[in-house]
Amino acid sequence: MERSIFRRRAVAFWMGAVLSLLPSLATAKVFHSRQEAVQLAFPDADQIQSRAIVLTPEQQQTIERLALAPLEAKMVTLYTASKGTAIVGYACIETRIVRTLPGSFLVTLTPTGEVKTVMAVAFHEPEEYLPPERWLKQFEGKPLAPELQIHKDIQSIGGATLSSQSVTHTVRKVLAIYQVILKDTP
Q1: What's the gap between Cα 175 and its chain centre?
Q2: Of 141, 33, 52, which is closest to residue 89 (Cα–Cα)?
Q3: Which of 2, 6, 69, 161 has the fewest CB atoms found within 10 Å of its own CB?
Q4: Angle, alpha carbons 135-122-93 (nearest 5°)
Q5: Euclidean distance between CA atoms 117 and 175, whole angstroms
Q6: How far apart are CA 112 and CA 26, in angstroms?
Q7: Could you tell me if 125 and 103 are in contact, meaning their C-beta atoms sit under 8 angstroms apart?
Q8: For 124, how many CA atoms within 13 A lie in the half-sphere containing its CB?
Q9: Which residues touch 144 (CB under 8 Å, ≥6 apart)?
Q10: What are phi and psi of 102, to 5 degrees?
Q11: DSSP conformation class of 154
Q12: 115-123 and 86-97: which strand pairing?
């Protein structure tokens, strides 16, 4: 009898644990493929080239120092959009853990290194933690600067502080990658 009660409680516990995960799994969303996101960001470009870059330890240290955030990987994929011979802009898709699950954001830059747009590509946290588009717009036109931080030039999101910090770190990281890899490239 005692064993039977224990089994029922164990089964009930595990079923509850599994069921508690279902809402967060159901909210996982992929909005665009990488290719779709980059093409949406540069609709006027007639050519978009991607290149994977393995960062040297020196580049990695410099990017982390400028971004005020650690890099999750030593390899980055950069997209260069052009129309004719003119560069229209650059883009990078970064994936970071937001709270406990990943979020991927596309950050596009002007040819001179200011933020053009920030777009959610995939977000696996519950949707209420997804930063709204109007919040993402506050990055537009901003270069890498000490003020580009939460509670300075960037407002936090009430109830989604970790999301706002994650996106801000992502934007700073892409701007730092521009400074280190692209800025002085012809």
Answers
A1: 12
A2: 141
A3: 2
A4: 80
A5: 12
A6: 40
A7: yes
A8: 12
A9: 66, 113, 172, 175, 176, 178, 179
A10: -80, 155
A11: B
A12: unpaired
Classify residue 135 as left (phi > 0), alpha (psi -120 to 50) or beta: alpha
The tokens describing 174, both together, are 């892409």
Domain boundaries, the chain: 29-183
- The answer to whether residues 177 and 63 touch, using CB atoms and an 8 Å cutoff, is yes
Give pLDDT tens digits for 114-171: 999 999 999 999 988 999 999 999 999 999 999 999 999 999 888 778 899 999 999 9
Distance separating alpha carbons of residues 70 and 38, to the nearest angstrom: 24
What pLDDT, on a 0 to 100 scale, did the predictor assign at position 5?
Answer: 53
Residue 47's nearest CA partner among 88, 106, 107, 93 is 88
Helix H, strand E, coil C: the string for 74-137 is CEEEEEEEEECCEEEEEEEEEEEECCCCEEEEEEEECCCCCEEEEEEEEECCCHHHCCCHHHHH
Q: What is the band of 3 on the pLDDT scale with cuts at 50, 70, 90?
A: low
pLDDT at 35 > cutoff 80: yes
CB-based burial label for 153 (10 Å; 0-12, 13-18, 19+): middle
What gap in Å lies between CA 15 and CA 101, rounded to an integer?
21
Say what the pLDDT of residue 2 is: 57
SS3 (DSSP) at 66: helix
Identify whether the C-beta of residue 26 lies closer than 8 Å to the C-beta of residue 116: no
Q: pLDDT band for position 24 (50/70/90)? A: very low
